[in-house]
Every structure is written in C-alpha cells, then in structure tokens.
Design brief:
341 residues, alpha/beta, Rossmann fold, 7-stranded parallel beta sheet, 5-stranded parallel beta sheet, 12 helices, 12 strands
C-alpha cells in the first residue's frame, strides 16, 4: 500500500490521485481533509482541517514552514491521524500533493516520499526543505531538455531542478485525435468557453457583457467564479472554437487534451505559480494567446483576439499533454518502491 496526500484547494490534486490509483498495481490510500470522492476504491483517511477557526498564530514557525498554526486543535489531530495510519498500515511510500509539512511528517516516520512540485518561485526555506528530503520530485509539465523546468521553477537551484521528473500534463480525458475545427451549421455563432478558477479573479456579469459586445458573432459559455459550475466541463471545452482560461495546471491539461486553442490569462496565486506557467506558454510552440491580465478592452477588441486565437492549430498541444503522464507518474512511484524494497 501507498498513501496519497490530496490538498483540499483546487481539483488537480484529486484528479492526479485518481489517475495514479487507477494505474498502479498497489493499493492507494487517500489522505485529505476532502470528503471521500465517489468511486475511490482504496481506503480514505479523512483528516481534520487545520485552516478553520481563525485567527491563526505563528503559522510559519519563524519562516521554516508554510502552515503550522500554534494552538490549533485540528493541526494536532491531523498529524496524529496520519501518524496512526502510518503505524497501522506501514505504507511503502506516500505521494504528497502538496504540503511541505506532510512531506516532513511522513519522512520523520521513515516513509519514502514522492513530492509533487508546482510551478513558481519556490526558493524559500520550506520549499527547499521539502525538496531536499523527498525521494523523488514530480512535475506535471512537458520537458524534453530541461528548459521548461527552468522556466517554471525560475528561482530554484539547478541541483533541485535536475531532480524533477517532468511527466507531462495529466488530464481526466483521453487525448483527442487531431484538432478538427468545430463544425458550424449555417448561421450558428462561433463559441468561446470561459473557465474561471475556484479562486482569484472573477469575471462579473457586467464586465462579461462589455466583453461580449466587442465580439459579435461569438456565443459565450462561462463556467466557475460566480457563474454556473459543472464538475465535468468536457463538452463545453471540446465544443469551443476558443477556450479562455486561467493558467492552472488542471485547466490547461484539459484544454490541451481536447486540443482546443486557448486565450490564457494567469491569475494571482502564491509563488507566482500561474505567471511562471504563462511565461512558458508565451515563449513556446503552444496554441495559446497569453495575456498578462484580463483586459476589458484589448487594443484590437475581444472579437479580434478570439478570431486570431481560433486560427491556431490546437494539435500543437500534443507535447504538453500526450496521454502518457499517468503511466510516467506511476513509473516514478514504482522506482521509489523498488529502491525501498
């Protein structure tokens, strides 16, 4: 058995856990403050929250950790529950996605850790601690020659970047074959699907209306923020001529898997995660128009931005997401298990 720690913010952590559990030959136990997801086949260890009941005191331990609030009962109960599970289950390894504190806790119990690495300026002391004590580091981006990892982790020392195993983007969907244009019967509008994150910038309805006015002939579907939310946006993404999205790993993976041209607008995230991703997209062969922020009125108007993006070849996402990330992720875990045997 191995464990997989799933951070409760965002959805990409859980998607990756599910993909790994479906690919590995060993049982995977989930550890998370999220409720047990439907269809999860292994054990699920529900963890108490450690971020409720503010105010939180001295959360960084003088800058050595990211989140370890003093005097929070959930913090103590959370660590105790993981410790009890490790003692009772004797896992062969734990994948941590993501938490420096969880990496440290598992390693202090003598358990090998595979740590998921996110893009961003992660040269601070807690990140360096987590990187150094993990047995393996995994990044969900393409990287044949190391340049992508250098761009996505700009402040991280070379000796850390060299340890990152870039396995490619991991999407919930099988990759599309080719990137055929979306068919449009006579008189039908072209379609743009907007994917808003669960946090960060919000596209309110009045602003959306002003953007739509600049793009006659386009039908807009907006998902997330204070608009409609669907758990599985596959149909809306696959049927779009253009996807307007933030630069989160999960959203980009799904756009890439479905081979749709995209307008990418990074949102504010800790450690400049999405802005580092946007830099890579802007300087690569990807079918994406990268905007540093969401302008209400681009110089050429939203109609021109969407039309230019729609002409990009969505097939160029193939290197970003080729459908093999889950198998490569599982291979890294298998290597750690073999070394620990």
């Amino acid at each position: 058995m191995i464990g997989y720690y799933v951070h409760h913010q965002g959805r990409g952590h859980l998607h990756r856990a599910r993909a790994l559990a479906a690919t590995l030959d060993v049982e995977v136990a989930g550890l998370s403050s999220l409720e047990r997801p439907a269809g999860w086949r292994g054990p699920w260890i529900q963890l108490p929250r450690d971020d409720d009941h503010p105010p939180h005191r001295e959360v960084t331990a003088a800058g050595r950790l990211h989140w370890a609030p003093l005097g929070h009962r959930g913090q103590a109960a959370r660590a105790a529950r993981v410790s009890r599970w490790i003692e009772q289950s004797a896992p062969q390894a734990v994948v941590v996605d993501v938490s420096v504190e969880m990496v440290l806790l598992c390693r202090l119990h003598g358990v090998p850790v595979i740590s998921v690495v996110l893009p961003g300026c992660r040269d601070d002391a807690p990140h360096r601690l987590g990187f150094d004590i993990a047995e393996a580091l995994v990044g969900f981006w393409p990287d044949g020659d190391g340049r992508a990892t250098t761009t996505l982790l700009p402040a991280v020392p070379a000796e850390v970047r060299d340890r990152v195993r870039a396995v490619g983007a991991l999407a919930r969907y099988p990759v599309a074959e080719g990137a055929a244009p979306v068919p449009h019967p006579r008189g039908q509008q072209r379609r743009v699907t907007v994917l808003l994150g669960s946090g960060g910038d919000v596209l309110d309805r009045s602003r959306l209306a002003r953007m739509q006015a600049q793009a006659p002939g386009w039908a807009w579907t907006v998902l997330g923020g204070d608009h409609a939310w669907v758990e599985d946006p596959r149909e809306a993404v696959a049927g779009a001529d253009v996807v307007l999205t933030h630069a989160g790993q999960n959203a980009l993976a799904e756009v890439a898997a479905l081979r749709r041209p995209a307008v990418v607008v990074p949102q504010r995230r800790p450690f400049d995660e999405q802005h580092c991703t946007a830099v890579l997209l802007a300087h690569g062969p990807w079918p994406a128009t990268v905007l540093p922020e969401l302008p209400e009125n681009p110089a050429a108007g939203w109609g021109a931005v969407l039309a230019a993006t729609a002409r990009l070849d969505g097939g160029r996402w193939e290197q970003w997401c080729d459908g093999g990330a889950a198998a490569r992720f599982a291979a890294v875990v298998d290597e750690v298990l073999a070394a620990a045997a």
